[in-house]
Design goal:
Length: 458
């Protein structure tokens, strides 16, 4: 049987299995029964984004949690980071964000965090799923032992305080014209208010949710909307936040988009200068550009690479005792402030750095030259990577690159493909080298085709 959990949590079409009202009630009960050791005095934090189905799923979770004796704190529409942080600071046992991320409104999902505000691991997901399959989750709670449901009076208070704490003394956003794209999502209420309170002149974009327009032509998946707005309003900078509040992108005053790795460098420099790093290193994904790695090294910081798959980034952040992690898809975590990826945090750091530097965004946001990169997915059994012939061609390509580039060859998330990424200072060599490597894989497997990157496989 296929798992209901994906790397993002539970994700699917709203009001279809497993995201029906009745299914989510049972899922909530199973989560308490199989994740919380001490069932006395259990508190669960629940937040959501602005999707039409969010209210239904929020109430279904609340009903399930209450039925097994938990106290439920409803935050309403807030960023995922606010849910994770409130879970941690309020000593709750569990937190749940109801969101479909950067998908359209018909898709929704459930992302669980533990008492520390960190995404739950695969073993915990498996325990919940096993409880669902066994039907052993009702716990025999009497009517006198039912939990309670409370609407939090200040759902983003802790989150707002954590974000404000990032700003150095004396640094504000006075006089800065910022185009803010809230994706009609989870951050579109708090983000404009926060930026204005810090002195920014805010031009709102994607900040009028109606339940059906989240991520529709706005947000991190539609950067051209922000780019056009920045130039049209002659803004100093533009920022976009993902539908669930996790991702961020930034556009300079010319309308040019900062690459996620470039924004990573800006945040890393800020974190280093203001004591937000627990060690002189940061965590990035395996696709992080070698230009970023060189820039970090030149600035006294190491780069610890991990898989781009969502669970690996936060896990590596905590196990490596680093203070900062980022992905090439625009996720940024400063763990001592917000324990999950938070787009508003990333945007605020970029704006604070801009205020400190007193220079155009186009000067700040492009701190190094991106090295040309090429990525393909080859239809092949990953076992081909264990063949001597494959190892030989990989070694030859790696030797040809030397210190001027980087090679990554690994199984793709789709089991029937091998992922190949090559970077080289001489962009003209990239195509030739990747053709050489792909030909070697084809020869080893007797296959004769490769296909371009599929975002769904990343």
């Amino acid at each position: 049987m296929n798992s209901i959990f994906s790397p993002e949590g539970v994700r699917g079409t709203a009001n279809r299995d497993p995201l029906t009202a009745s299914g989510v009630v049972k899922l909530a009960m199973a989560a308490i029964a199989h994740m919380v050791r001490d069932h006395d005095g259990v508190t669960v934090v629940v937040g959501r984004d602005t999707r039409l189905s969010g209210g239904m799923l929020e109430q279904a979770l609340a009903a399930g949690f209450m039925a097994v004796g938990a106290r439920v704190k409803l935050l309403g529409p807030v960023p995922y980071g606010a849910v994770a942080l409130e879970t941690r600071v309020s000593c709750a046992s569990l937190g749940v964000m109801v969101s479909g991320g950067d998908e359209m409104y018909s898709i929704n999902g459930l992302a669980f965090v533990n008492a520390e505000g960190r995404p739950i691991r695969a073993a915990e997901q498996a325990a919940i799923e096993a409880g669902l399959a066994d039907g052993d989750h009702e716990m025999g709670i009497s009517s006198a032992e039912l939990g309670s449901i409370d609407v939090h009076p200040a759902p983003t208070a802790a989150y707002d305080a954590a974000l404000r704490a990032l700003l150095p003394p004396g640094i504000g956003l006075d006089g800065m014209r910022v185009v803010l794209d809230g994706a009609h999502g989870a951050a579109c209420a708090i983000a404009p208010t926060l930026l204005r309170s810090l002195g920014a002149e805010v031009v709102e974009l994607g900040c009028q949710p109606n339940g059906r327009n989240i991520n529709r032509g706005v947000g991190v998946e539609a950067p051209w909307t922000l780019q056009d707005a920045v130039t049209a309003h002659r803004a100093d900078v533009g920022v976009a936040i993902g539908g669930d509040g996790q991702r961020a992108l930034v556009v300079d005053e010319t309308g040019e988009l900062a690459e996620p790795d470039e924004l990573f460098a800006v945040i890393a420099a800020f974190a280093r200068d203001h004591g937000h790093l627990t060690r002189p290193a940061a965590v990035g994904c395996d696709k992080a550009n070698i230009g970023l790695e060189r820039w970090l090294q030149a600035n006294g910081l190491g780069l610890i690479r991990t898989s781009a798959e969502p669970p690996h980034l936060p896990h590596t952040l905590w196990t490596s005792d680093c203070g900062l992690a980022a992905s090439t898809s625009g996720h940024y975590i400063l763990r001592d402030h917000v324990p999950v990826a938070d787009g508003l945090m990333a945007a605020l750091v970029a704006l604070a750095r801009l205020a400190e530097a007193r220079c155009p965004a186009s000067t700040l946001l492009h701190p190094f030259e991106m090295v040309p990169q090429h990525e393909v997915y080859v239809p092949a059994d990953p076992a081909v990577l264990e063949l001597d012939a494959t190892r030989g061609v990989i070694a030859r390509v790696r030797a040809a690159l030397g210190a001027s580039g980087r090679l990554l060859v690994a199984p793709a998330l789709a089991n029937s493909h091998v992922r190949v990424v090559i970077e080289a200072d001489d962009g003209g060599r990239v195509d030739a080298l990747i053709s050489q490597l792909v030909a070697g894989l084809r020869s080893a497997m007797g296959r004769d085709r490769a296909k371009p990157p599929n975002p769904a496989l990343r």
